[in-house]
Amino acid sequence: MNRPAKSAGYVARTRPVVPPIYQSATFYLDDIAYKDIQANDGLGEHWYSRFANPTVDAAAAEIAELEGAEAALMTASGMAAIATTLLTLLQKGRRIVAARQVYGDTRDLLVRDLPALGFDVTMVDAADIDAWRSAIDAAPTTIVYAETLSNPQLELTAIATVASLAHRAGAQLVIDNTFATPYTVNPLRLGADIVVHSATKFLSGHSDVIAGAVVADRETIVELQRRVITLGGCLDAHAAFLVWRGLQTFGIRMDRAQSTARALVQRLRANPHVAAVRYPGDGAMVSFVVHGGNDRALAVMRRLRVASEATSLGGVETLVSAPFNSSHFSLSEQELADARIDAGMLRFSCGIEDTETLIADVEQALAA
Ligand SMILES: *Cc1c(COP(=O)(O)O)cnc(C)c1O
């Protein structure tokens, strides 16, 4: 007869080396657990996995440590991390000043969804400090939002300067550190209040999971956790396990990807088919502009044999995309110009393949 089994709640005497995947929606409760849950407003003991799950906690602890943060919160995606953070902070006020050069779906959230809910959003050029200052000072501001590296130009945002402008106005600075990663910068140390991540990218590193994270002080994380409970963007235990496992090789993956990126940049700068190279000096992301515009860029991309054409980044495999054709396809000519996306631009996310094999492949694609 079909009968649901009661788990014995078996506990090994010895401890596992890797966190078990607690693939359980709910947990048996006893008097002690009830008391703890009630005393901590639902956030004490594990009792229901939308509130907290031990495997998810294990991934969060690793990311908090990497970012030098007191605490971290895992979410179902990078967009869940961003949307939950912005909706939570906007409760206290209604205005956000954001960089124009942000991830495509973040841009849609900022220019379409948040204004539809009655929030006021002003966009500025990420590299223009005077524009940040006048936009932040123009009206009471709750949130200032930027990415460490603008996409796809890969220009560094002056985080410390923007943080002081935000704080002077009583606003909080939220930084998306997905592209730069904690391998190159910890925005909290530079004055950011909250850092968001698409853990789908370099943190997990294997293009096999969608996940997000937020890091901040403990009080802020608890506040955000309460919103994840009602908005529902919690991370699943199995996905959290994949993030945790990817994080175990984060440093060595980034060592290789960065050294490949630096070598690629040197060779691209010497290549007559390349009009410009954009590289911030650290990390694994490289953008460059080929002579001959978008059609030529597409032709170069399609001749690649080692790097693959795909829209994500941060995996062990090198991924290449043409922003005008993928992340920014919905932008008009004017919006592309405003976002400073040059015709013929390609964006590389360096993986961990053999460096010389990868560069030789790029060179043959450019020369053909
Ligand atoms: C991918 C990405 C996101 C969205 O993350 P998902 O995990 O796909 O939801 C946000 N910001 C940046 C910079 C990204 O690259």
From TrEMBL:
GO cellular component: cytoplasm
PANTHER family for the chain: TRANS-SULFURATION ENZYME FAMILY MEMBER (PTHR11808)
Name under which the protein is recorded: homocysteine desulfhydrase
Similarity-based family: Belongs to the trans-sulfuration enzymes family.
Entry cofactors: pyridoxal 5'-phosphate
One of the protein's GO biological processes: transsulfuration
Modified residue annotations for N6-(pyridoxal phosphate)lysine: 201
EC number(s) on file: 4.4.1.2
Keyword check for Zinc: no
Membrane-crossing segments per the record: none
Superkingdom: Bacteria
Entry's Gene Ontology molecular function annotations: homocysteine desulfhydrase activity; methionine gamma-lyase activity; pyridoxal phosphate binding
UniProt keyword terms in alphabetical order: Pyridoxal phosphate
Catalysis: reaction(s): L-homocysteine + H2O = 2-oxobutanoate + hydrogen sulfide + NH4(+) + H(+); L-methionine + H2O = methanethiol + 2-oxobutanoate + NH4(+)
